[in-house]
Amino acid sequence: MAVFFTSLALGFGQMFQGAVLRLLLKSAALTLLIFAVLAGLGWYAVDWLLTVAGLGDRLFTGAGALRGVASAVLALIGAWLLWRIVAMAVIQFYADEIVLAVERRHYPEAAAQARELPVSMQLRQALRGARRALLSNLIAAPFALALAFTGIGTALLFWAVNAWLLGRELQDMVWLRHTHLAGEQAPVSGSARLALGGVVAALMLVPFVNFLAPVLGAASATHLVHRAQAARVHKGFR
Questions:
Q1: d(CA 224, CA 173)
Q2: TM spans, by residue (predicted)?
Q3: Which terminus of the chain has fewer CB atoms gathered within 10 Å of its CB, N or C?
């Protein structure tokens, strides 16, 4: 696990340097834009559903205002639940640039040998990751409701599910650039992958910090994959 802590520290140290900082600002702006559009669409959808359900303006005085408040609250809750999916989909789209920026600075030899992923493949990866996250969280939802009485069980379940998902996504966005040289099996251990996903999943719950979390995850994953691969190669030569 020492390689995990080193990779996390290196990833954090690179967050505000040159190319990574520019990608952080770009991805945060796009995430906010998508988030705002989804929240707006969600508000209109919930407002329409409540109207269809009978909470129309003529039902009683103030029904429209009550419906508006309820729609806004429900839309914000839905948008908050979708934040992780939207943020990671955006980062998946920019993954190649983030990984390349880290590799050029710390692993120039690996950067020179890496394959450039076509935009179509990056888009497919982003959509595949978003679909996997949505389905996994929907499957976990009934169990999360059953754990609601515990006070913390629901949050822990969603954190564990997303830690597993994020660890895999962050690893893959780095490793896909190098599978043509080193094979399909990534060198990162399951515990290190889960630890990275757990840290990023936890940071995504913190306001404002959640803008940094996906980029920190991508940068740290780059260090983690390359350091784990170097350790595997070294072990193989012993």
A1: 12
A2: 23-45, 65-83, 134-161, 194-219
A3: C
The number of angstroms, rounded, from the C-alpha of 184 to the middle of its chain's C-alpha atoms is 22
Quick check: 197 and 167 in contact, CB under 8 A? yes
- 37-90 pLDDT tens trace: 877 787 777 777 777 766 665 666 666 677 677 777 777 777 666 777 788 778
pTM: 0.78
Nearest Cα to Cα of residue 73 among 52, 50, 46, 49: 46
The H or E element that residue 38 is part of is helix 18-52
Cβ atoms within 10 Å, residue 4: 22
In the chain, where are the structural domains located?
A: 13-32+84-232
Helix (H, G, I), strand (E, B) or coil at 57: coil
